[in-house]
Amino acid sequence: QVQLQESGPGLVNASQTLSLSCTVSGGSITSMYHAWTWIRQPPGKGLEWIGVILYDDTTYYAPSLKSRTSISRDTSKNQFSLQLTSVAPEDTAMYYCTNWIYWGQGTQVTVSS
After folding, report:
1. 50-75 tens-digit pLDDT
2. In three state form, how does the secondary structure of 7-51 look?
3. Which pick of 7, 46, 86, 105 has the fewest CB atoms within 10 Å?
4. In the 8-state DSSP scheme, what is residue 2?
5. pLDDT tens, 7-47?
């Protein structure tokens, strides 16, 4: 069974960069069968797709976030990471990593103004 675990700071100051990592166990992030994805849910709102990194290191981002988002991976640690620059209070959300079959438990990120 694949397990995903998000990690990173729970509080980020506005205008700074949010950095989160997702550690994957029980499966390889180089597997061509999975799309390693970041999703967030702001308080009181629905899920928002942020972006994905594929087995060949190809990335795709939500158009609304593309200019501020970078997803990368460290195959030696079986991790993939999210960086979101120039954050604002509107980026406050629960952040999840997933391969669309298995989900991390989520990590709350609050952006302070």
Report:
1. 999 999 999 999 999 999 999 999 99
2. ECCCEEECCCCEEEEEEEECCCCCCCCCCEEEEEECCCCCCEEEE
3. 46
4. -
5. 999 999 999 999 999 999 999 999 878 899 999 999 999 99
What are the structure tokens assigned to 85, written together? 């620059």
How far is CA 81 from its chain centroid?
A: 6
- Alpha-carbon span 97 to 78, nearest angstrom: 13
Write down the residue that tokens 């593309």 correspond to. 66
Two tokens, residue 46? 């629905």
- DSSP string spanning 53-107? E-TTS-EEE-TTTGGGEEEEEETTTTEEEEEE-S--GGG-EEEEEE-SSSB---E
In which residue are the tokens 């069974």 written?
1
